[in-house]
Design a protein that fits this description.
The protein has about 250 residues and is α/β, with parallel strands linked by helices. The chain is built from 11 helices and 12 strands. A hairpin with a 2-residue loop joins strand 7 and strand 8. Helix 1 runs parallel beside helix 3. The chain starts with a strand and ends in a 7-residue tail after the last helix.
């Protein structure tokens, strides 16, 4: 069985790492270059960098900052935010990204998934999905959780899988930043439905939450931000805990 991955996430706004709760009330969490270097040294399996206001502000991801982070890490690096066309992907891969994460642009133009997979390989294309439970079921949201769509989480994830996405990064907006655990029921459903890895995002508050998302949520990777940024959980300690709990992780 493949090792489960631990992935810190840098949410970037105005060149600084920020973290909020349920996608709002953002507070600063440090310099992205310094954080990236620290996580790489601590044994994180990958790093995700999301320019969280790029789509909302209608601009491209800051390429120079991506270059600086990439130069300071030695682990796979995923970059998202404001990616609308193949030239954006090319620019970010040239800046040092290993993969790109597309969210709003994929919902607006699903063909973009096919195009990225065809031109750069499926492994480059991570489709991020921000969703929350409504009275009509799990619905997908655009522009950093600002705009609700009529797309069902599970239908959209399946379509993304079939179009050539290499991974699904699912963030439960209801769980984001509240530290009560991941949306494991929805994650398990996604894992059973899809043929590609599922990354859990939103809800990590303690080490047990990571174990639960791997066991109950059947997630392939767990992404977290504030518990790492503010030193509540140290990655080496987390990995040793998971290993002791019988979870296959890279130490």
């Amino acid at each position: 069985m493949l090792a489960k991955r631990i992935i810190p996430c840098l949410d970037i706004k105005d060149g600084q790492t920020v973290k909020g709760t349920n996608f709002v009330n953002l507070r600063k969490a440090g310099d992205p270059v310094e954080l990236g270097r620290a996580y790489s040294e601590q044994g994180a399996d990958e790093l995700v960098y999301l320019d969280i206001t790029a789509s909302h502000e209608g601009r491209k991801t800051f390429t120079d900052l991506v270059k600086r982070v990439a130069a300071n890490i030695s682990i796979p690096f995923t970059v998202g935010g404001g990616i609308h066309e193949l030239s954006d992907v090319d620019r970010l891969l040239s800046a040092g990204a290993d993969k790109v994460s597309i969210n709003s642009s994929a919902i607006k133009n699903p063909q973009l998934i096919d195009d990225i997979a065809k031109h750069f390989g499926a492994q480059v294309c991570v489709v991020a999905i921000d969703a929350k439970q409504t009275k009509f079921g799990w619905k997908c949201f655009l522009n950093g959780g600002r705009i609700e769509t009529d797309k069902d989480l599970f239908d959209w994830a399946k379509e993304a899988n079939e179009r050539g996405a290499g991974e699904i990064l699912f963030t439960s907006m209801d769980h984001d930043g509240v530290k009560t655990g991941y949306a494991n029921e929805a994650l398990a459903t996604l894992s059973d439905l899809l043929t590609i890895p599922v990354i859990a995002s939103g809800g990590a508050g303690n080490m047990e939450h990571f174990k639960d998302t791997f066991v109950k949520g059947k997630a392939d990777a767990a992404l977290a931000a504030s518990v790492f940024h503010f030193g509540e959980i140290k990655i080496p300690e987390l990995k040793h805990y998971l290993c002791a709990e019988g979870i296959n992780v890279r130490l």
